[in-house]
Description:
- The chain is α/β, with parallel strands linked by helices.
- The protein is 35% helix and 22% strand.
- It is built from 9 helices and 10 strands.
- A hairpin with a 2-residue loop joins strand 1 (31-42) and strand 2.
- Helix 3 (127-137) crosses helix 4, helix 4 packs across helix 5 and helix 5 (172-184) packs parallel to helix 6.
- The longest helix has 16 residues, at 202-217.
- The termini are far apart.
Amino acid sequence: MDSHQSFSDGVFVPLTNSGTLSQTNSVEDEIIISAIKVNKYFGDKHVLKDVDFEVHKREVVALIGPSGSGKSTLLRCFNGLEKHTSGQIYIHGHLLDPNLSIKQLSPIRSELGMVFQNFNLFPHMTVLQNIIEAPLRVRKTPRDQAVAQAEKLLAKVGLAEKRDVYPNKLSGGQKQRVAIARALAMQPRALLFDEPTSALDPELVGEVLKVMKDLAYEGSTMVVVTHEMQFARDVSDRVVFISDGVIVEQGDPEELFKQPKHERTKLFLERVLSTML
Length: 277
Ligand SMILES: Nc1ncnc2c1ncn2[C@@H]1O[C@H](COP(=O)(O)OP(=O)(O)OP(=O)(O)O)[C@@H](O)[C@H]1O
Ligand SMILES: [Mg+2]
């Protein structure tokens, strides 16, 4: 049993199904995230409406949709930052019960790494301290191991020399690469990205997308909320279009971009693609 399987309070569901998704060779049957008829209300505002969503191991899913359609809320429900109102969410077979305490939620939440638009680095900690904080505190990793792993991750994102620098000395692109290294340090089963490049100056977008591409090609499981249509088309295994809290359509990126089946998808794509020209 590996450390990821030690959590015993959750409810297990089968980790495989017959698979109705169009899968590339590398995508595996094992389900990492499963949402079943998830609803979310903020007061009487119905933000997620019967959302069914599955992410398989090694799958890269791009989540696209207009502003206010519920993309961030869905990601935040997956890692327990928001409590869904009804429906079920399973993270690698563990039921994410919205009534669990923060302490009970912690092992499930640490299965997923989250990368935010605004980096959310701890400003009073160096780059290295930012990366080792959760492994030390949550995973109880011995310090020397956590440091060695952090140094490897920093090298991976091309920032080995920034080890002892504070975040305010970094560019936005560098901050985001540190945030990615920090998420990876918990060895999550999947990474959730919420518009990771949209707060960046255009010339810094590429360096972050490059790190994300490398992760995708290495077989990481990723859900990426993005307006980077090129990334969605070239890197993802599946694109999911959400509008007004409803998954309108999803499928192979090439097909969905070329021949969207629904009028709403078509209108959205026309609008975003025209702003890219
Ligand atoms: N904490 C909150 N309280 C009340 N309403 C909220 C809250 N968070 C989000 N909402 C509302 O829920 C809806 C979905 O918001 P969400 O942030 O998930 O959209 P989004 O698709 O991520 O949009 P964007 O592309 O602008 O980031 C919006 O109408 C938003 O105003
Ligand atoms: Mg959002």
